[in-house]
Each structure stands twice: as structure tokens, then as C-alpha cells.
Write a structure and sequence with these properties.
alpha/beta, seven-stranded mixed β-sheet, six-stranded antiparallel β-sheet, 20% strand
């Protein structure tokens, strides 16, 4: 649009070839700096051709002042300033997620603080849209909606975050004039943009009808996967996953279509599948991004990529698997900007935090974190490494994959194709003079033996195992061939954990426990609840997408290797006996920890029973 507005001037025609193809996106990525975005040629254009000086209302104050203002009026979880400093983009969106305010109430507070007018969803739907002048992807990334004011028809930019100058500068360049700022909620802007036409939308149906009939033609499939409709469909899925805080995207083919599901807070939820694109094309596009062979469809493949999605840097891990109707793909999302790792965020009890901090002061030995896939073991290990990370210690890790980048820690990723496995890396680690060694997972007998011997020779070893409980780690290691006397000498503690969804603070429902309720629902008796107590149940609101849950926290059991436990290790006792002895010594099981969180209103009975069992 910029070139269209300026092409009447010969000087502009000469300079236009140097402009980037998508100047608005480039300007937004450069934080509003035209020269950094490659738009410096505009400086040589006649001043009459440039947009006039901005006359819109300039917001007073910045996001730090707004955080303080909001904290005085409403409750905000944790330390918002410390959390928001980790993010360069979307600070107000993340701040909204930390509050209990609805999208509308949050937008009201933004408008009040910055002294800007408000525009609600009905007003935006009725206002003449200028979204056709922009890329819809750009508008969704920065959460703005351009339109004309109903009063005088002047260009208006509805923003959710008035502290971000980049979209304002981009809008003034595109519209060749000043714009008036109004405030809208994140959800209202997303809703109105969903109905806005896209500049590339028309060719989609035409392209879809021209899809090649021979899907076995690899060259045609590669061209199709690189086409605009398929690229846009995959990018939209990635953006939607980030906005929904999803950890995984599952793309599953059917006979004539495909299903897309996203794992949000540990639970899979179906989402609308992209229209007018072939399932094979979507899978091929995903494989191209991950550097996989699109011609190989008979064997499973694994790959990885680093992507920029919605102004965020993310790492993705892709795994494909051939099925009856084609290949299925699972995309694991690993955002680089995850905030600070803090032991208080794990969900441990007060006594559990104290015990873990004490264990991490030990000079040598082995600490194991157990649980199924997706139970938060890697996050717990990364938090432990963050606590240990200082200039007096050398820390080495071997992981698959590296999910958290921790400055000051030497992190390596396994590469089985060249022989770099957990076991081979461990053998090399002991010659690197480390103080702390972290092994992503003990999968085989060789890795178990090397890890135990590393702990025996004066290193603190942190690792994980896939077992049902903390006590089950002992018979598992014995089954892998570790001698019981070595395990007695090296094992310091085992941490068992699960993840439960947290009740949404905005819509959770308090429910008193009555005698009638105890008689009708045996779950309350199973958890040991009594008449007169109060628990909370899931409600449903716009903040939690109607699920009643938002975020997750851990349930833990921390088994220390006491003298009694060591005696049981020597006799190769079963896990139930070890759990019973540890409980008598004061260990809280995951089930008991879950009951405590139910009583505090943090989670629900259904969630505790979903991930744990009474023992």
C-alpha cells in the first residue's frame, strides 16, 4: 500500500525498489525503526509525500507505571515486573493473564490509565474497516484493528496495548496520515479480525481446486507445501497454539480430511482444521520446516526447527508416524521466552521446598525425579540446575532435547546417529572435571551404571526415571542391574511428581461439603474430606476458554534415603514397602499433596483423582 500511495512521484519510483516486500511486517519486527526495517529510502522522498506529523493522543506513562497502578487496584499473581521483564513483546497481554480481570475490565483499566477512548466489539463491527490495507497476520500479531471513526470518518487504530509504538508507526505509514488511538480488548480485536478479509484469501479456493491429483508426485507435493494457502494454514496453527498456551499440536489424517488437536494444560482439545488444504500438503509443510524427508512416508521420522511465530522465538520438535490414512505429525512447542525458573512456581509445599534446597547443598550423590511423560520432570530438573548454577560450580547436562537454555550451564543434546548417547556423554563428562551432572533420562543399564559410578566418585548427579511413584525408582534401578550396595551409597532422594490443572481464579465455584454430598459422591470420602469443609469446582469463563482451569502446578512426593530405606534397598524390597516406611518417617505422598491443594481451593477433586491414586 505504501508504494501505491507514493508512486506519483518519480523520486519515489526510483526508491521503491529498495523497499522490503512487506514493509509493515518489517517495521513491526524492527520495533518501529524505519531504518532498521529497511525503510530508510523513505528519508530521500519529498517531505510532501511523507505522512504528516502524528496528532493522535500520546499515552502518558509506560507499562511499568501501569503495572504499579494495576497492582494497587487488583490482585496480581507473583512478581509481575520480574515476569514481564523477561518478555520483549506482548507485555500487556501477559500482564492480563496474571490478573483476575476479564478482557473487558482489563481494557477499561488500560483506557482509563492512558487516557484513551474505548471501543467495544459492537462499535468495531459497525465501523468501516481498514483491515484490507494490512496483512491480517500483522494485525493479529500486534493485536490492532484499523477502521474509520463513525463520527467523522477519520482513520482510527484500535489497540490492546498502547505502549507498543511499532503498530502505530506502521499504520501511519500505510494510511499516509495520523491515526487516532482507541483501546479495545484483546478478545474483541481477535474476534473482529477473524471476520476481516485477508488480502490473499481470494486465491485460496482457486489454488485448492488446482491441487494435483497424483499425491505420490513428490515434486508437486513439495511445490504445494510451499504455496501460500498451506504455509498460511500451518503458520495459523502455530500462532493459535502459542496464543492458547498449547504444548503440543497433533495433526491426524482421516480418510478424506484431517483432525487437529492441541494439548493445553495437559489435556487434548480439538480445534478447527484448516480449510481448502490437503492433509498431505500440511504434513509435508511441517516436515519441510523440521528438515525431514517428505519422500519417506513409510517410516517414523524426528526433526527439529527454530521458528519465529507471532513475534516470538520458539523451538519445535516434530515427530511423524505412518498410519492407515497417511502420516500423523506431533509438534512439540518449546518457547524460548519461558520466564524465570523459580522453585516457588513448582508447587512444592513449604516443607518440600526446604527439603529440596537442603538436598541441593549435598556435594555428591544422586537425586532422581520420576513420573510419566509430560509430568514436568524436565522443568523440575531445570529449576534445580538454576539453583545450583553459580560461578563456583561446573555443570554439564546431556538432554533429549534441550528444552531450557540456562546461561552458565554446559548443555548437550543426544545425537544417536553419530553415537552421542546418554551413556557415551556420561563417560566423557567424568573427564571434564564437573561438579554437577544432569542426565535427561536413565533409559538403559549402561546409563544407570555410569550415573551411579559418577555419583560414587564425588559428583552430584541429577536424572529422571519413568516410574509410577518415587519408591518404584528403587526396584527399577535394581532391575537395570545396579548393585544394591552401590544404590545404598549413592541414592540421596527420589522426587515423584504429577501435574494437575489449576482452577481458574476468576470463575471457580466454592462448594461446601455436606453430609448429603458425602453420601451421594464417594470421591469426597476417598479424599478424606469431612462435613463442614469447603472445596472448589471448575466453572467456566472467557479467560479459561470455558474449561474452568488455567495453568498447572505439581503434586510431589519427596522420598529421602533414610537408614530404614537403605535397609530395604539392601533386601531388594518392593515399592509398596518402601512407600510405607517413608510415610512413617514423614513423607507426604502425591495423593495427600493433592488433597491438601483441594482443601486450599487450588485444584479440584476431579483433577487429583485424574492423575493420582490412593495408596
Amino acid at each position: 500500500m505504501i508504494l501505491t500511495k507514493l508512486k506519483s512521484d518519480p523520486d519515489v519510483d526510483a526508491a521503491s525498489s529498495a523497499l522490503p516486500k512487506r514493509p509493515l511486517d518489517a517495521l513491526a519486527a524492527a520495533d518501529g525503526n524505519p531504518e532498521k526495517a529497511g525503510l530508510h529510502v523513505l528519508a530521500r522522498v519529498s517531505p510532501a509525500q511523507l505522512p504528516p506529523p502524528r496528532t493522535h493522543i500520546v499515552p502518558v506513562g509506560d507499562w511499568l507505571e501501569f503495572v504499579s497502578y494495576l497492582a494497587r487496584k487488583h490482585s496480581i499473581a507473583g512478581d509481575p515486573i520480574a515476569s514481564l521483564r523477561q518478555s520483549k513483546n506482548n507485555r500487556l497481554r501477559e500482564l492480563w493473564a496474571l490478573t483476575d480481570l476479564s478482557a473487558t475490565d482489563f481494557a477499561d483499566e488500560v483506557a482509563t490509565f492512558f487516557g484513551l477512548g474505548r471501543m467495544a466489539l459492537p462499535q468495531m463491527m459497525e465501523a468501516p474497516s481498514l483491515a484490507g490495507e494490512f496483512s491480517r497476520r500483522f494485525l493479529k500479531e500486534v493485536a490492532v484493528f484499523p477502521c474509520r471513526a463513525e463520527e467523522d470518518g477519520s482513520p482510527t487504530l484500535v489497540v490492546a496495548d498502547p505502549t507498543d509504538p511499532a503498530p502505530v508507526h506502521a499504520a501511519e505509514l500505510a494510511l499516509c496520515g495520523p491515526v487516532t488511538l482507541r483501546v479495545g480488548s484483546f478478545e474483541d480485536i481477535a474476534t473482529v479480525l477473524a471476520d476481516a478479509p485477508d488480502e490473499n484469501e481470494a486465491p485460496v479456493a482457486e489454488t485448492a481446486t488446482a491441487l494435483p491429483q497424483r499425491t505420490d508426485d513428490i515434486d508437486s507435493l513439495r511445490d504445494l507445501a510451499s504455496g501460500a494457502p498451506v504455509v498460511r494454514a500451518v503458520n495459523d496453527l502455530l500462532e493459535q497454539a502459542l496464543e492458547s498456551r498449547a504444548t503440543d499440536i497433533h495433526v491426524e489424517p482421516l480418510r478424506k480430511s484431517f483432525v487437529v488437536r492441541m494439548r493445553i494444560d495437559g489435556v487434548l482439545r480439538p480445534v478447527p482444521s484448516p480449510a481448502d488444504v490437503l492433509p498431505q500438503a500440511v504434513i509435508s509443510r511441517i516436515k519441510i520446516l523440521a528438515g525431514l524427508n517428505i519422500a519417506e512416508r513409510r517410516l517414523p521420522q524426528d526433526g527439529a526447527a527454530h521458528l519465529r511465530v507471532a513475534r516470538s522465538q520458539i523451538d519445535v520438535r516434530v515427530a511423524t508416524m505412518p498410519t492407515q490414512y497417511g502420516e500423523t505429525a506431533v509438534i512439540r512447542l518449546l518457547p524460548r521466552d519461558r520466564g524465570t525458573l523459580d522453585i516457588a512456581k513448582l508447587g512444592l509445599s513449604v516443607s518440600g521446598e526446604q527439603t529440596l534446597n537442603r538436598l541441593l547443598t549435598l556435594p555428591h550423590g544422586m537425586i532422581i525425579v520420576t513420573g510419566p511423560t509430560g509430568s514436568g520432570k524436565t522443568t523440575t530438573l531445570a529449576t534445580m540446575l538454576t539453583i545450583l548454577n553459580d560461578s563456583s560450580r561446573k555443570i554439564l547436562t546431556i538432554e533429549d532435547p534441550v528444552e531450557y537454555e540456562i546461561p552458565g550451564v554446559n548443555q548437550s543434546q543426544v545425537k544417536p546417529e553419530i553415537g552421542l548417547t546418554f551413556a557415551s556423554a556420561l563417560r566423557s563428562f567424568v573427564r571434564q572435571d564437573p561438579d554437577v551432572i544432569m542426565v535427561g533420562e536413565i533409559r538403559d543399564s549402561e546409563t544407570a551404571h555410569i550415573a551411579v559410578h559418577a555419583a560414587l566418585t564425588g559428583h552430584l548427579v541429577l536424572t529422571t526415571l519413568h516410574t509410577e511413584s518415587a519408591a518404584a525408582a528403587v526396584p527399577r534401578l535394581l532391575d537395570l542391574g545396579v548393585e544394591s550396595f552401590l544404590l545404598q551409597s549413592t541414592l540421596r532422594a527420589v522426587i515423584g511428581q504429577r501435574l494437575v490443572r489449576l482452577l481458574c481464579e476468576r470463575c471457580k465455584i466454592e462448594r461446601p461439603v455436606t453430609t448429603q454430598l458425602l453420601a451421594e459422591d464417594p470421591r469426597y470420602l476417598m479424599l478424606g474430606l469431612r462435613s463442614g469443609e469447603t472445596v472448589c469446582e471448575a466453572g467456566g469463563c472467557e479467560r479459561c476458554s470455558g474449561t474452568g482451569y488455567r495453568g498447572r502446578s505439581g503434586l510431589f512426593e519427596l522420598l529421602e534415603t533414610s537408614d530404614d530405606v537403605r535397609d530395604l534397598i539392601g533386601t531388594r524390597a518392593e515399592a509398596q514397602n518402601i512407600t510405607r516406611v517413608a510415610a512413617r518417617s514423614g513423607m507426604t505422598t502425591m495423593f495427600e499433596h493433592g488433597v491438601a491443594k483441594c482443601r486450599s481451593g487450588t485444584t479440584s477433586i476431579a483433577e487429583v483423582l485424574r492423575v493420582t491414586t490412593a495408596r
